[in-house]
Write a structure and sequence with these properties.
heterodimer; A: alpha/beta; three-stranded antiparallel sheet; B: alpha/beta; 12 helices; about 20% helix
Chain lengths: ~290, ~650
C-alpha cells in the first residue's frame, strides 16, 4: 500500500522533510514536538508571578532570593501532536482524490515518522467518517489503508465537517483540510472556529488545470458533479474572464484566512509533482 | 439618392431570423465539472430557462446585421444623380410608335431577348421623374399616331410614375410633332421654366417633327443600332393562272431589309386560323434591298373573303412588321342578279343579253320575291330589278329599270312621258362615258324627280328619265323606261352603258366593303344601309360597338395590326374581316437617324449617356458587406486567449449564502 501511494524516492524526501515539520498546536500527551502550552519539561520558557494554588515546587527560589518576589519557573511542555487529515471525499473530488490522498499520505507519513499521531477524517456532507488515530511508524499502514478506503461521492459541507472535528477533538492539533474548497458554505468561519479552539490549520486546495484556467470553448452545458445541476455556458472570452475572476477570489479568500491565522495554504494542481508542494507545506508557506 | 430597385430591401427581413438565431438557445454539449458554483455566479445571466435568452450586444450579431443591411441596400441599387432635371413644368413625351416595340439592342442570347425600346423609355422616364427638382410638376404624353395625354401636370411622383407605366406601344406610325405640339399647348399658358423631354428611338415617320418648337426640347434617344427585316407592302388580288386557266389568288409583297447583313428569309402564306401553309418561298434579301415576292394559291369556294396571313421568318428584333394581314378577294366573276317584279313578266332579254355577253359575270335571274328571300346574295353583287323598286334591295350596286310610279329610293317616279326627246346626258358620270344617245328614241318613259341634288343622267325636254340613286354604300342607277320600248338596245351606246354599269360594280367589288386598313388610322367600313350598329372584335379579342350611319361605320381606335371582325344585324346581317397592317418603312428602319431639329432649341442626348450620370453605390456596398463578412470570420475564428490566474489583478470574492453562525 505504501509504494502504491508513496514512491520510495518520495519517502526518502519525506524522511528529510519530516524534521522541519512544525506544528503550532497544543496536545495532551508528551512527544517530540514542543507545544505552546507551558508544562513540565526541562526546557525553560519564562517566569510568572506566583498565584495561590500554584505548585510550590515550581517556585524559583534563587529568583525569590534576589528579588523578594515569589515567581514560578515555567518550562515548555513536550507533548505529542495529533495531525488530523480532513480529506474531502465529495463527488467533486473524483478526479482529484488520488492527489488528495497522496498529499494526505505524505503529511501523515511525516507525522508518524516523527512518532506523532495522525488521524484520517473523511469529509462529505459533514464528517462522513473518523478513522482511529495512528501513532509512530507502525501506524503508517493503518493510515494509508484509511486513505485508500476513501471513495468520492455525495455533496460537500466542509463547515459542518470542520465543526464536527472541533467538537470531537479533546485536544487541539494540526487540522489539515485537503479539499478543492468548491463549497459555497461558510467554510472560513468554521476554520476560524478551529483556530480559536487551538488547532493549527493547514489548507491544501487540490485543483485540476481546467479549474484554474478553463481551456474549453464554445457552448456547453455544465453538470455539477455533486448536485447534478445543469448550467448553460457560452465559453467566450467574457465568460472565461468572469470565471477566473471568481476562482481567483476563492483562492484569495483562503489565502487571506491563512495570513490572518498564520495557517498554511497550499494550492496543488493535479498536473504538478507533489514534492514541491510538500516542501511548501513543511515551510508553512502561503501560496 | 434613390433606390433603383427598392425590392432588394426584402433582404432586411432576414434581420429578424438572424436575431432569433442569436436569442434562441442552442443545443449544447454536456460536460461534467467538479462544481458549477463559480460558473453560476459568473454566468448568472445564462441561467434563464426559457427557450430564448436575453439579447446581449455581440460583435458577430452586429457584424452580421451590418452585412445583411449592406447587401439589402446593395440589391436595392442606391444611386445618386449627377444632375437634376431642371424646370418648373416638364412634359415627358414618350414615343409610342411601332418601332418602340423593337428590342433595345442585339441580344447576346436569342433565347433571352432583353428589354424593348419601350421598356427602356419607361425606365428613362421614371428616372426623369425622380430627377425632378422639388416643387416642379410633370405631365406624360404618349406619341402614337395621335397624341394622348396619359397624365396631366402633377406634382405627385408616384402618380406620374404610374402614368408612365400605363404607356404602351401602338402598332402605328408615330407622330411626335403632334405630341410635342400638344405639350407646347399645355405648357405655354404656364409661368416659370418650362421644358419638354422627348424619349424616342429616333425612328420617326415624319422628318422635322421637332422643328420650330417654341419651348426648349430635350430629346433622349433609346435603343441601339439593330438589324430588321419587314414586309413593307402587300396587295392580294384575284387573277387567272395562264397555264392552268384557273382562278388564282395572287399576293404581292415587298420585303425590305433594313439591316447591314443579308437576310435569308422564308415567306409563307396561311389562312387565318389555319396552320397549313398555302404558299411559301425562300428569299435572300440584301442589305437595303426591297425585294418583291409573289405568292399564289388556287382558292376553294369557301376561301373567298377569309383572312390571309403573310409572314417572314425567322422573326427578328421587331416582330410586328414581320407579319401582314390580307383578305382573300372575292371571285373574279361578278355575281349579277336579275329580278323581275313577278314571274309573269320576265326581265327584258335586252338586259340579260347585255349582261351575259360579259364573260366575267355570273348571271342569275328570278323574281324579286326570290331575290329578297335569298340568303346567299353577296353584299357586293350587282342587282338589276325591273318593274319594281323595293326599299331595301339586297346586294351591292343596283340598276332599277322602269319602276312603278311612286317613290323609289329617294326619287319620285312621276307621270308617263310619251315620246320624250332626249336632250342631254351626263358625260362626266362614269356610267355615261364614251357613249352618245343621239338618235335614241324612247316611246314611253316615266318622269323622274330626285328629292335632293341627285344627279340626272338622261334628260328630256319634260324632265329626267334616268337618275343616279346612289347611297354612300352602293352605286345605284334608275332608268325610268323599259329598254324594250326604246331603240336603245339596237345601238352600241346601250352595250357601253351596261358595260360601264357593270365595270363600276366590279370596281366597287374589288375595293370591297372596306379597303385595306392601316393601324393608327380610322377604319371605314361600308355596310348595308339597314345596319345601325356593328360590333367590332379587335385582334386582341376586345369588342366594341360602333354606330353605322348611312351604311358607313367608322372604327376610330385601330391601334393594333391583325384581323378586325365586324358583325352587324338587321335585314342584311353579316360579318366581314378587315385586315389591318403597319407596312411602314419609317417604323421598320431601326438604324440610327439624325433628328431633323433646330440647333440650339433641341438638345439630343442618348439616354444611356444620361443614365451614366447616376452614381450607383451597389458595388461599394457590396465591398462593405464583404469587409464585414471578413471581420466576422476573423472574429469567430480567432484564438481566444483564456485569462491567466496570475494576471488577475482584482479577484472577485465568491458569493456565498448568508454565513450565519
Amino acid at each position: 500500500v505504501i509504494t502504491e501511494i508513496l514512491s520510495p524516492d518520495f519517502l526518502r524526501e519525506l524522511e528529510v522533510l519530516r524534521r522541519r515539520l512544525e506544528v503550532r498546536a497544543r496536545s495532551g500527551a508528551s512527544g517530540e514536538h514542543t507545544a505552546r502550552r507551558r508544562g513540565g519539561s526541562a526546557e525553560f520558557q519564562e517566569h510568572r508571578a506566583y498565584a495561590p494554588g500554584d505548585d510550590l515546587r515550581r517556585i524559583d527560589w534563587a529568583a525569590y532570593a534576589r528579588t523578594g518576589e515569589p515567581v514560578l519557573k515555567l518550562f515548555r511542555a513536550e507533548e505529542d501532536v495529533v495531525v488530523r487529515l480532513l480529506c474531502d471525499a465529495s463527488a467533486s473530488m473524483q478526479d482529484k482524490l488520488d492527489v488528495a490522498r497522496r498529499v494526505a499520505a505524505a503529511i501523515g507519513y511525516m507525522t508518524l515518522a516523527g512518532s506523532e499521531r495522525a488521524q484520517v477524517l473523511v469529509a462529505g456532507e459533514g464528517l462522513r467518517r473518523q478513522h482511529a488515530p495512528a501513532r509512530g511508524r507502525d501506524g503508517v499502514p493503518t493510515l494509508l489503508r484509511s486513505l485508500a478506503s476513501m471513495e468520492s461521492h455525495g455533496a460537500t459541507d466542509l463547515a459542518r465537517a470542520v465543526d464536527a472535528v472541533i467538537e470531537r477533538s479533546k485536544r487541539a492539533g494540526m487540522l489539515t483540510v485537503v479539499s478543492d474548497f468548491f463549497d459555497p458554505g461558510p467554510v472560513t468561519r468554521a476554520l476560524g472556529r478551529a483556530v480559536q479552539a487551538g488547532h493549527d490549520v493547514a489548507l491544501v486546495q487540490v485543483v485540476s488545470p481546467d479549474e484554474v484556467e478553463p481551456s474549453f470553448e464554445g457552448d456547453w452545458e455544465l453538470e455539477d458533479a455533486e448536485t447534478g445541476a445543469l448550467l448553460q455556458v457560452t465559453m467566450d472570452a467574457a465568460a472565461l474572464q468572469a470565471y477566473v475572476l471568481r476562482f481567483a477570489g476563492l483562492c484569495e479568500e483562503l489565502r487571506a484566512f491563512a495570513r490572518r491565522h498564520r495557517a498554511v495554504y497550499l494550492r496543488v494542481r493535479t498536473d504538478e509533482p507533489l514534492e514541491p508542494a510538500v516542501r511548501r507545506f513543511v515551510s508553512r508557506s502561503i501560496d | 439618392m434613390e433606390l433603383l430597385a427598392p425590392r432588394g430591401l426584402w433582404m432586411l427581413g432576414l434581420l429578424a431570423p438572424l436575431v432569433v438565431l442569436y436569442i434562441l438557445k442552442i443545443r449544447r454539449q454536456r460536460r461534467r465539472v467538479s462544481s458549477t458554483w463559480l460558473w453560476s455566479t459568473a454566468q448568472r445571466d445564462l441561467m434563464a430557462r426559457s427557450p430564448f435568452k436575453k439579447l446581449v450586444p455581440q460583435l458577430p450579431l452586429l457584424l452580421q446585421a451590418l452585412v445583411l443591411a449592406a447587401l439589402a441596400f446593395a440589391l436595392a441599387r442606391p444611386a445618386s444623380r449627377g444632375r437634376e432635371l431642371t424646370g418648373d413644368h416638364v412634359a415627358i413625351v414618350i414615343d409610342a410608335s411601332a418601332s418602340m416595340s423593337a428590342l433595345a439592342e442585339v441580344p447576346a442570347d436569342p433565347a433571352q431577348p432583353g428589354p424593348t425600346r419601350m421598356d427602356l423609355a419607361r425606365s428613362v422616364a421614371r428616372d426623369l421623374v425622380s430627377a425632378l427638382t422639388p416643387g416642379s410638376d410633370a405631365m406624360v404624353l404618349e406619341a402614337g399616331r395621335e397624341a394622348r395625354v396619359v397624365s396631366p401636370l402633377d406634382r405627385d411622383r408616384r402618380r406620374v410614375r404610374e402614368a408612365i407605366d400605363r404607356t404602351a406601344v401602338r402598332d402605328v406610325e408615330g407622330d411626335l410633332a403632334a405630341a410635342v405640339a400638344l405639350a407646347v399647348d399645355r405648357l405655354k399658358q404656364l409661368g416659370g421654366e418650362r421644358r419638354i423631354v422627348v424619349i424616342t428611338d429616333g425612328a420617326l415617320a415624319r422628318a422635322g417633327a421637332l422643328a420650330g418648337v417654341a419651348l426648349p426640347v430635350e430629346v433622349l434617344t433609346v435603343g441601339a443600332r439593330i438589324d430588321n427585316a419587314a414586309i413593307v407592302r402587300v396587295d392580294v388580288r384575284s387573277g387567272t393562272d395562264a397555264v392552268a386557266k384557273r382562278e388564282q389568288v395572287q399576293a404581292f409583297l415587298v420585303v425590305g431589309n433594313f439591316g447591314a447583313q443579308p437576310r435569308d428569309l422564308f415567306v409563307t402564306m396561311r389562312q387565318e386560323g389555319a396552320s397549313d401553309v398555302l404558299a411559301s418561298r425562300r428569299v435572300l434579301v440584301q442589305p437595303g434591298e426591297r425585294l418583291p415576292v409573289v405568292l399564289t394559291f388556287y382558292p376553294a369556294p369557301g376561301d373567298y373573303r377569309r383572312g390571309l396571313m403573310l409572314d417572314i421568318a425567322p422573326h427578328d428584333a421587331m416582330p410586328v412588321d414581320d407579319t401582314v394581314y390580307a383578305r382573300v378577294p372575292a371571285g373574279e366573276k361578278l355575281p349579277v342578279f336579275l329580278a323581275s317584279s313577278d314571274a309573269s313578266k320576265p326581265v327584258s332579254p335586252w338586259l340579260e343579253r347585255a349582261l351575259v355577253s360579259d364573260p366575267m359575270t355570273e348571271v342569275r335571274a328570278g323574281t324579286l320575291a326570290a331575290l329578297t328571300a335569298a340568303k346567299d346574295v353577296p353584299l357586293d353583287a350587282f342587282v338589276v330589278i325591273e318593274g319594281a323598286c323595293p326599299d331595301h334591295p339586297p346586294g351591292g350596286d343596283l340598276l332599277i329599270v322602269n319602276p312603278p310610279a311612286g317613290r323609289c329610293l329617294g326619287t319620285l317616279v312621276g307621270r308617263t312621258l310619251e315620246q320624250p326627246l332626249i336632250t342631254s346626258w351626263e358625260n362626266s358620270d362614269a356610267r355615261m362615258r364614251f357613249l352618245t344617245l343621239d338618235g335614241v328614241h324612247v316611246a314611253k318613259a316615266s318622269a323622274l324627280k330626285p328629292d335632293g341634288t341627285t344627279q340626272e343622267l338622261i334628260r328630256t325636254q319634260e324632265g329626267a328619265i334616268a337618275t343616279d340613286i346612289s347611297t354612300p354604300t352602293r352605286a345605284g342607277t334608275l332608268l325610268g323606261f323599259d329598254v324594250g320600248e326604246t331603240d336603245w338596245p339596237l345601238k352600241a351606246s346601250f352595250v357601253l352603258f351596261m358595260r360601264n354599269v357593270v365595270e363600276l360594280a366590279r370596281t366597287h367589288r374589288a375595293h370591297g366593303m372596306a379597303g385595306p386598313a392601316r393601324a393608327g388610322e380610322p377604319m371605314r367600313v361600308t355596310l348595308p344601309a339597314s345596319a345601325t350598329q356593328v360590333e367590332v372584335e379587335a385582334p386582341s379579342g376586345e369588342k366594341a360597338s360602333v354606330p353605322v350611319k348611312n351604311g358607313l361605320a367608322v372604327v376610330p381606335d385601330v391601334q393594333r395590326v391583325g384581323f378586325y371582325h365586324l358583325t352587324w344585324q338587321g335585314p342584311q346581317a353579316g360579318t366581314i374581316v378587315v385586315p389591318t397592317n403597319l407596312t411602314s418603312e419609317a417604323e421598320s428602319d431601326l438604324q440610327p437617324r439624325t433628328l431633323d431639329a433646330q440647333p440650339g432649341q433641341v438638345q439630343v442626348t442618348p439616354a444611356a449617356a444620361r443614365t451614366e450620370a447616376h452614381h450607383e453605390w451597389t458595388w461599394i456596398l457590396a465591398l462593405v458587406a464583404l469587409a464585414f463578412v471578413l471581420a466576422d470570420v476573423w472574429y469567430l475564428t480567432r484564438e481566444v486567449r483564456a485569462p491567466q490566474l496570475a494576471d488577475v489583478a482584482r479577484p472577485r470574492a465568491p458569493e456565498r449564502p448568508a454565513q450565519a453562525g
